[in-house]
Specification:
This protein has 350 residues and is α/β, with parallel strands linked by helices. Helix content is 47%, strand content 7%. The protein has a five-stranded mixed beta sheet with strand order 1-5-4-3-2, with helices on both faces. The chain is globular.
Length: 350
């Protein structure tokens, strides 16, 4: 024991002298700090390349659509390299609006479709919108098609817009005037989405803020709803589920919130989609958990292609050292639209 105590004292003294020397000459000046930094960099690079940067999973229900995408939309088979300093799901989701540029876009002709109650100060009917009700979207699509019946006509939906678009396509089948569609970061199962967003950290970062935004959007039109909805009760909601239970499901006549969420989930209608649809989702999206993505259903429909990345968050998909100009989602959209416009005739509707 005495020998062990002596050895420990000697070791402590040597360590103290070593640390004193490090402080005097400088951490990096000794070479140890630089070695640690380089070692950490190599370890991080190995982890990034082995666990973060991966090829997306391409799930299709038909070989024809798969071959078409591989030939004309190669981005869906390329390795996706998320931004090395920001690949975590919540980080990508929160930072994307502040990092990516918003280039000016000039329109020669356009139709602007705003959901009721979202834009402007005047709401003419006591009704806003929900993921399951596609009447307004269908009206807009047929209106545009009537103006330009011979033009190539495609649609794209992001997040809730993608849910609305898929529900429309599932209801109408191949009779739509659209030649193709693309969706990004869709919530496939509304129950799973709600459950994920109600986890403590997700509630703090996303759920509560989005709930207040929904409350603000309807509160400015509250005079239109007071006869059928308890608006004071709506304004006390602390989550999206509570808001939907007290406002959305009531406004659209659903007996319960479960009835609304069942009807709003696009996974129920994916097998009825009758045109080529490309769906990009990230497996770490807190708004759309990976276990709820309908992979098996997609395999049964030759018109559907799922592109699943390991990382990307919700509408994130940042890539490059400084992801200012373009994201992986942008590249998928650009290549898919060009492929359908220029080579869409190669795909026949089933």
């Amino acid at each position: 024991m005495q020998r062990l105590a002596m050895d420990l004292r000697v070791l402590s003294r040597e360590l103290a002298l070593y640390l004193e020397h490090q402080v005097r000459v400088g951490f990096f000046g000794s070479g140890v700090g630089l070695s640690l930094l380089l070692g950490f960099g190599v370890a991080y690079a190995c982890y990034y390349l082995s666990s973060i940067a991966k090829k997306p999973q391409l799930v299709t229900g038909g070989e024809s659509f798969s071959r078409f995408l591989r030939e004309h939309c190669p981005v869906v088979t390329e390795t996706y390299y998320p931004t090395v300093w920001c690949w975590e799901s919540r980080g990508q989701t929160l930072l994307r609006p502040f990092i990516t540029a918003k280039p000016p876009v000039q329109y020669r002709k356009c139709v602007v479709f705003n959901n009721r109650g979202v834009a402007g100060e005047n709401l003419l009917t006591p009704r806003t919108y929900c993921c399951a009700n596609t009447e307004d979207l269908e009206t807009v699509i047929h209106h545009v098609h009537s103006l330009y019946p011979s033009a190539p006509f495609l649609a794209a939906g992001v997040s809730m817009g993608g849910m609305l678009l898929l529900n429309y396509l599932g209801k109408i089948g191949p009779k739509t005037p659209l030649m193709a569609a693309a969706t990004f970061s869709v919530g496939w199962n509304t129950f799973a989405c709600s459950e994920s967003l109600e986890k403590p950290l997700n509630w703090l970062l996303f759920n509560y803020y989005l709930t207040t935004c929904l409350q603000s959007s309807v509160n400015k039109h509250r005079h239109m709803f007071v006869k059928q909805i308890d608006m004071d009760h709506v304004m006390k909601a602390k989550s999206i589920r509570e808001f939907d239970k007290r406002f959305t499901s009531v406004m659209f006549g659903y007996p319960t919130i479960d009835d609304y969420y069942t009807d709003a989930s696009p996974n129920r209608r994916l097998d009825s989609v009758g045109i080529p649809v490309l769906c990009l989702n990230s497996e770490d999206d807190v708004f759309s958990p990976s276990h709820a993505i309908p992979i098996e259903t997609a395999k049964q429909n030759p018109n559907v292609a799922l592109v699943l990345t390991s990382h990307g968050g919700h509408i994130g998909f940042l890539e490059g050292i400084w992801p200012r100009q373009c994201t992986y989602m942008d590249r998928v959209f650009q290549q898919f639209v060009r492929a359908m416009v220029e080579h869409g005739h190669e795909l026949a509707r089933t």
